[in-house]
Write a structure and sequence with these properties.
This protein has about 220 residues and is α/β, with parallel strands linked by helices. The chain is about 30% helix and about 35% strand. Strands 3-2-1-4-5-11-10 form a seven-stranded mixed sheet, sandwiched between helices. The protein has a four-stranded antiparallel sheet with strand order 6-7-8-9, with helices on one face.
Length: about 220
């Protein structure tokens, strides 16, 4: 059985050290949503974006496949409704808008799963707002790249490898006072223009005024 992504140690580290991306895109996401409405957030992580959505007056159902992440979101954004949801098989609640930030769809196992999940998300709400990794993301990292991060009571070593033109693998070693754990994450890269045409979405370079990393695209679908 496949180990779930973002178990307890990595979930805590991700929330503590990598929430700046959600902070940077939040103004653009909130602007795209407009007036307060019902929002389903996919892949909410530890609630870094959720708290911005709640603060803007939206009624949020925050979902994630990681129980550890949901536990953090309960503390970060207690006003949100918290639910476990794993794509591509779990149904997405009907709502006014669906939001997914942090390249959530790239964590799926196949291009078919990505397209199927995007279609389901677009149908669940009047508006879909998400980011996604394009095949061009691989152009920025042709060789393995090592990263090291350290915080209060933890250390994180990450090796990013372009395993194939459409697949980035992150091998992570996490050291805490309790011991050492490992996680292996695979991100599937997609032809964003092609998949956008299939799901009826528009492609943008950003949510708002922020500058996204190379290879990141924004998809908007409305009906």
């Amino acid at each position: 059985m496949k180990e779930p992504y973002y178990r307890m140690d990595l979930a805590r580290i991700h929330h503590e050290a990598f929430g700046d991306y959600a902070d940077s895109v939040a103004p653009g996401v909130v602007s795209l949503l407009g007036a307060p409405c019902n929002v389903v957030e996919l892949g909410c992580g530890g609630g870094a974006l959720t708290r911005h959505l709640v603060a803007a007056g939206h009624r949020v159902i925050a979902t994630d496949a990681s129980p550890a992440m949901l536990d953090i979101t309960r503390q970060t954004a207690p006003e949100a409704e918290i639910r476990a949801l794993e794509l591509p098989n779990d149904p997405i609640p009907n709502t006014d808008a669906v939001v997914a930030v942090g390249t959530v769809f790239n964590y799926l196992a196949s291009k078919t799963d990505v397209e199927r999940s995007l279609v389901a998300a677009a149908r669940a709400g009047d508006l879909l707002v998400t980011d996604i990794l394009d095949l061009s993301y691989g152009d920025t990292r042709p060789e393995p790249v090592d990263y090291f991060h350290e915080g209060h009571g933890w250390k994180l070593w990450t090796l990013n490898t372009l395993e194939a033109p459409d697949r980035v693998v992150r091998e992570m070693t996490i050291e805490t006072r309790a011991g050492v754990t490992h996680e292996r994450h695979v991100n599937l890269l997609v032809d964003v223009e092609e998949i956008a045409s299939r799901v009826g979405a528009k492609v943008r370079g950003s949510f708002g005024d922020e500058v996204l990393p190379s290879g990141f695209r924004v998809l908007l679908a409305s009906h």
